[in-house]
Amino acid sequence: MSDFLSWAVPGVRALRPYQPGKPMEELEREYGIRESIKLASNENPNGPSPRALHALQTELGRIGLYPDGNGFRLKAKLAERCAVPAAALTLGNGSSEVLEFAVRAFVSVGDEVIVAQHAFAIYPILVQAAGGRCIEVPARDWGHDLVAMRAAVGERTRLIFIANPNNPTGTWLPAAELEAFIASLPQRVMVVVDEAYFEYASDPALGAAEYPNSLEWVARYPNLIVTRTFSKVYGLAGLRVGYAVSHPEVADLMNRIRPPFNVNSLALAAAEAALDDEAHLRASLAMNAEGMQYLGEIFSSLGLPYIPSIGNFVAVEVGDEAAAVYDALLHEGVIVRPVANYGMAHHLRVTVGSPAENQRFVAALKKVLGRA
Ligand SMILES: *Cc1c(COP(=O)(O)O)cnc(C)c1O
């Protein structure tokens, strides 16, 4: 008899896989619906830059060859943009992969990792898989309570995850508060600042004047790892490419774990080209700021509380029937994200879409809530 469960490493036995947003194809297959919209995974409704698409076409002719395993050209461009040495960079198959490198490089069995309540669900999965212990610190006003997180640091704490802004809440930490927290930590405690939504969050139109550029701190705090991605505003989620900026010695450790050729040649080429399209970036940010304002106004007019967000998504409170609202929206062909697994059973998370998608979502929401 086989008993795979007992043969699995202890951290893996109790793992529950990450639940991604429902794919449109799946909804259409299961519900017999056509032309659904997905506002469930914080993808850019504008898609990728035409420059990225063009670069992909050129690169297609070369996919018989292995990619550049060191991502030299993308790293050179990122180093210039981020004003850091190329040796500070680690490329990942999505930034989730660099989050995993950080855990695998620093967390041994029995070590502790601190996360905030309602924080991104991938952190505890990575920690548990490595045999680490996740300490979840209760949130304050839906966001990270840095005082409580600092107080949770103990002898066995090796790493702290901070999502800024956090997903799914959209909450953020101002520069002074976050830097003081990082400065207060013992050097042996690594802190990962996950900036998947950096570009949205630093858009002045969303109004977070004190949102930091934590890359400026990397030279000062060798225990700081900042992660960013091409999956969100750059519209390249399907290609999987993200990166970390850290002290070069930390980058060296993470690169030792990195599987060879973890970022494919199409992703490298598209990411590099995407960085050059300022106009596409600005248009995407403008569409997001406008959509965010529109959704906020609608939620207010419907009397639905929401958590102010500086990302491209917003968590709205629809009451104790949130699961039923989610399901009813699916029947209207609108996919949003249930967040009960984040301890937010009364909320749904909605990605800010194109104007047409937002209107379609609002019409469906009103219908479902009987407010049409
Ligand atoms: C989307 C997201 C990521 C990154 O996803 P990748 O596609 O793996 O780059 C990381 N952190 C948070 C908080 C996110 O929401």
What does this structure look like?
This protein has 372 residues and is an alpha/beta fold. Helix content is 39%, strand content 14%. The chain contains 15 helices and 12 strands. It has helices at residues 4-7, 10-13, 24-31, 50-60, 72-82, 95-106, 122-129, 146-151, 175-184, 198-201, 248-257, 265-274, 278-301, 322-331, 355-368, and strands at residues 37-38, 89-92, 112-116, 133-137, 157-163, 190-194, 224-229, 242-246, 313-317, 334-335, 337-338, 347-351. The strands form 3 sheets. The chain has a 7-stranded mixed beta sheet with strand order 2-8-7-6-5-3-4, with helices on both faces. Strands 9-12-11 form a 3-stranded antiparallel beta sheet, with helices on one face. The protein has a two-stranded parallel ribbon with strand order 1-10. The longest helix is centred in the C-terminal third of the chain and has 24 residues, at 278-301. It is globular. The mean pLDDT is 96. It binds pyridoxal-5'-phosphate. Pyridoxal-5'-phosphate binds at residues 42, 94-96, 120, 163, 167, 194, 196, 229, 231-232, 237, 242.
Secondary-structure map:
Elements: H1 4-7, H2 10-13, H3 24-31, E1 37-38, H4 50-60, H5 72-82, E2 89-92, H6 95-106, E3 112-116, H7 122-129, E4 133-137, H8 146-151, E5 157-163, H9 175-184, E6 190-194, H10 198-201, E7 224-229, E8 242-246, H11 248-257, H12 265-274, H13 278-301, E9 313-317, H14 322-331, E10 334-335, E11 337-338, E12 347-351, H15 355-368
Parallel strand pairs: 1-10, 3-4, 3-5, 5-6, 6-7
Antiparallel strand pairs: 2-8, 7-8, 9-12, 11-12
Helix pairs in contact: 4-12, 5-12, 6-7, 6-11
This protein binds pyridoxal-5'-phosphate.
Pyridoxal-5'-phosphate is lined by residues 42, 94-96, 120, 163, 167, 194, 196, 229, 231-232, 237, 242.
